[in-house]
Amino acid sequence: MRITVKKKEKKNYKSVKLVVFVLVFVLLVNTVPVKVSAAESKEDVYLMYYGNPDYCRLKGAKLPGTSSDLLLYSWYMDSDGQDCAKLYWSGSSEEYANVSPPTEIQDDKTWDMDPFLFTDLDDTFNNNMIITWTDANKKFDGTETKDEIAGSMRISVRALKSSTIVFSDKILTVTKESSDVSAYNSHITKFGDKILITWVVCSDVKNDDRAYGIEGLYYDPDTNKFSSDDNKTDAKGNLIPMVFAESCNYISNHTVAELNGSVAVLYEEAVDGTHVSDVMYDQVKQRDKVSLYSPDEFKNNKVKLAVNNGKNVDTVNLPDTYGSIVETDLPELIYYCNGKIKEIGTDSDSTSGWKIEELADVSKTGDARYSILSKDGSMQYITAREYSPLKIDKSEITLNGMKYTKSSNGKWMDEQNKEQDIRQEDIRLYYYNNTTGKAEILPQKLHGKDGVFFMAQPSIFINHSGMLDVTWFYANANENMSFGLYHTTYEQQSVQKADYTAVNEAIDKVNALNKNDYEDFSAVTDAVNAVEYDKDYTEQETVEGHAKAIEKAIKALKLRSADYTAVDEALTKVKGLDADLYRNFSDVTAAVDAVDRDKNFKEQAEVDAMAAAIETAIQALTYKDADYTTVDEAIAKAKALDVNLYKDFTAVNVAIDAVVRGKNIKEQAEVDAMAKAIEDAVAALELKSANTKTETNNTNQGGAQSETNNASATDAPSVSNASNPVNTQSEASDTSEEAEDTQSEASDTSGEAEDTLSETSDENEEKGSSRTEDKSPETGDDSNLKLWITLFFLSGSGIVCMLQKKRTTKNEKIRINEKKRA
């Protein structure tokens, strides 16, 4: 059965559905976008889906003599009721864009794990591919102890004829008679014209102090047989393995290469008392645990070199540092230590016969697991399994049954409220330039998504098409934390591209903006259009410049101005007002001064508030009080007059009483009219005549009105001598002239008043004479008749003289007024 996988569109993953035996593989219905921060994949095949994390190990390599590749995976799946991990293989072909369904390599219902894959690329071994793995020699029923699990582990091998894609009929297993012996961590290397299979052995899992070593046998894939240098066997006829290291503490990993014509092994030795029984138990019984980052993974250990069949052993990494074997398909002894990738090579000038050379500086990724990808026998890439702080949107996550909560400072706290260093994973690539002999880290991450956890070290190699071929088993904490098995390919041009993460983050910001919100968006558009997407890692600085240009253009954007129409209308109203009319115009001024013309449309509410503030201040304006100065002056003049001198003072009093206080400045005309009314009333006053006053005095002298006379004597001129009417008239005339002068100054109508007074005087004279005559004593005695006649003529003469004088004075005043007018 073959499943065809469609070519994917740029920046999208395609999906595939696979069904293998009783395993149900889930079809991805929707495409999954590729983040531009990651290398752009050409193919992404979703091989299978696990609801829960389980044990998984991955390998991949080119099938020699073909255009296809082989994918190898060991995983645990209890769907068929078999409590064990099984080993499967799939073939993939770029030419046909397909991945074959996984096929089981061995079906013995025992644990098959930790596979190793060797490919013969030079036709020495007829294009055979050889697979080794750790193989339990019995089934587990769940009652096994740690020692029993470890003591059951052996090494098995099977060859695959690549030309026919047919495995050898028989699986060879390294036989160990004792159940206390454990064999694990196999490795295959080419040694001269032979294939050497090596493994780590613990001779006593119960008492494993200094019980570890490395041993091996040659293997012939054509005959499917083992051999050794001397082919010695034990008492039962079993071939005795060759020994390359012995009397060691727990060995976690090793590699083998030829050095000075003999076998040399490089291995990692623990210094903390690790036991193989614990390691094997965790893999078998704790298989559902996610392998979280732990500093213990990079704790101090020793990387040792053993030569001369283990007789000469040297520690090659620095004291108190972490060191690790670098996985490679090259026949070289390569390891990591203290930020450097180092190689052990032949040195004929030294007594040891070897030397250490630095291959690459990988300090940018530091302590990590490394592997080397080669092409045509030369190093092309260095991969690093990178750990970085977990970045997910969720505030809670459950891993290995434990709940973790993100605190306010971004730290993860466990259920005991202890801080935990939870890290996500990805693969970083160094490109090795064989011309310069330097490794340069590529800007892009291979996966490029946040929240990713690997269940196993991804398998990465360069396939027949020259692409990076990756098989990985991971889950994403940003999604449902369900692990899936994926096969992905990348063109080398893609992985060597510059990292456009910063550019795309800036463009994401641009896309989130509404260009209509800004006065001018053209600079941003120009910056985005200027981005060139064909830059490689050597031009990363140029790409960063594009990102900065976009960010700068975004920062310089100015939002559209707010609508100031209401503000302007309110200001127009203010300009139409006379500030001098109002007592509280300062409130309006303050509201106007508070107007901020720099507000944008998102601050429209603030602008509207400015307009409302001006309008409110206008509505609250109160007029100043009217000026009552002329009113008060007119009233003061009126009060300064002697009411008794005038015929009728009522009009003046009425005008005064008509004054209304509290008028505002807009009613000033009314106030001025009040003042004028008073002044007009005063101007219209008529003085009483002098005869009337004399008669009044005479009456008072008669005793009938003596009290009145006494009362008026204080306010009005008194008549002191009734027998001297001339003097009395003269005084009255003088008083009249003074009043006449006052009236002349107050009003242009003084002449008319003068005439009125004259006429009134004449009338008073006539009335006075009549009243005198009426009031003459009637005693019946006319002896005084002559006296009265004499007095009458004398009075008449006095009046004539007074009138003549008055006319003269009047004419004189008229001439003076005419001169003034002129």
Protein topology:
Blueprint: E1 3-4, E2 12-13, E3 19-20, E4 23-24, E5 32-33, E6 41-49, E7 56-62, E8 68-76, E9 85-93, E10 98-99, E11 103-104, E12 112-119, E13 128-136, H1 146-151, E14 153-161, E15 166-167, E16 172-173, E17 182-191, E18 194-202, E19 212-220, E20 225-227, E21 242-248, E22 251-259, E23 262-269, H2 276-285, E24 302-307, E25 312-315, E26 323-325, E27 327-328, E28 333-337, E29 340-346, E30 354-361, E31 370-375, E32 378-389, E33 396-399, E34 402-406, E35 412-413, E36 419-420, E37 423-433, E38 438-445, E39 452-454, E40 459-462, E41 468-476, E42 484-490, H3 492-495, H4 501-511, H5 522-529, H6 540-555, H7 565-575, H8 585-593, H9 604-619, H10 629-640, H11 650-657, H12 668-683, H13 690-701, H14 706-712, H15 725-746, H16 750-774, H17 785-821
Parallel strand pairs: 27-31
Antiparallel strand pairs: 1-10, 2-5, 3-4, 6-42, 7-8, 8-9, 9-10, 9-11, 12-13, 13-14, 14-15, 14-16, 17-18, 18-19, 19-20, 19-21, 22-23, 23-24, 24-25, 26-28, 28-29, 29-30, 31-32, 32-37, 33-34, 34-35, 35-36, 37-38, 39-41, 40-41, 41-42
Helix pairs in contact: 4-6, 5-6, 7-9, 8-9, 10-12, 11-12, 13-14, 13-16, 15-16, 15-17, 16-17
